[in-house]
Amino acid sequence: PAPPALLPYVPRLSPMALPGKLTATTFALERPHCIFHQHSNASDAIWLVVAFASASAAFRNPPSRAEVPLYQQLPTRGSYMTLEMAVGTCSCSAPSPAVLRVGADTACGAQAGHDPCNGPLPSPGPYRVKFLLMGCQGPKAETRWSEPILLRRASSPSAIDPSPVRGGSSAVVVISSILASLGAVLALAVLSIVGAEVWACLCHQGLGTHAFTRRSYRTHHIPPTLPLPTGRGGSPPGLGCFASCPPAARPAK
């Protein structure tokens, strides 16, 4: 059979700002748009070839779907094929842009290697990918290989230093001092406001008490005392022997 047509398209990561576009086990590719329209018909399918960058040159296109390398063969073969798509999903009339997430199928282990799947990538790579158009008679067209794609590396728990960084201790002290000063200023402001309110309340009560003491106070249950009439000798009547007597003469020395 004739070799597949080599198209100038180079696969790349999605140019959109996506959360998790590049993780430790997945990466998001730009879906090819209006690339295979001159070489395809409705019965064809588009595959994604994923290979270690060091093994991409040794990859050979499978002659039929039955010989497509599976995800489980990646550690030994260095490549596999996944994300089988109908031609219509990448046609010129398909909505664009779109994203293909490589490594997103965590249930690949349950398939026991019978069908192609899109399992998590086992290492940071780097990887290279290309798109391959396959018909009933085998490969018909392919894109170029992508640039190497290196995944993020997960930090080992043993490599994490639990002790604080020494260089940042002075900064922590400065920030703590500023926060403490702000707290003291805020507390002083609150106490000043509360003290002003209490002082105003006390002054108001004091003015009310002073005004009350200036009023005349009259008892209503005690009759007023009337002046007593005096008897002979200027003593009040009824005192008898208790009337005031002239002071006794002092004895002569």
Question: What this model shows, in words?
Answer:
The structure is a single chain. Helix content is 19%, strand content 16%. The protein has two helices and seven strands. It has a five-stranded mixed sheet with strand order 1-7-6-3-4. Residues 209-217 and 235-245 have low confidence and may be disordered. Keywords: Membrane, Transmembrane, Transmembrane helix.
Which SSEs are present, and which pair or pack?
Layout: E1 5-6, E2 27-30, E3 45-52, H1 74-77, E4 79-86, E5 99-102, E6 127-135, E7 138-142, H2 169-213
Parallel strand pairs: 1-7
Antiparallel strand pairs: 2-5, 3-4, 3-6, 6-7
Q: In CATH terms, what is the architecture of the domain at 5-154?
A: Sandwich
- Please give the order of strands in the largest beta sheet: 1-7-6-3-4
| The level-1 CATH class of the domain at 5-154 | Mainly Beta
Number of helices: 2
* Main beta-sheet annotation: 5 strands, mixed
Average pLDDT number = 78
Structural class: alpha+beta
Name the beta content range.
15-25%
At the fold tier of CATH, the topology name of the domain at 5-154 is Immunoglobulin-like
Measured between the Cα atoms of the first and last residue, the distance is 167 Å
Please write the string of helix (H) and strand (E) elements.
EEEHEEEEH
Oligomer kind = single chain
Instruction: State the helical fraction.
Output: 10-25%
Poorly predicted regions are 209-217, 235-245
The rough form would be described as: elongated
User: What is the alpha-carbon Rg in Å?
Assistant: 51 Å
Number of separate strands = 7
Organism: Semnornis frantzii
GO cellular component, one term: membrane
Transmembrane segments: 171-194
Keywords: Membrane, Transmembrane, Transmembrane helix
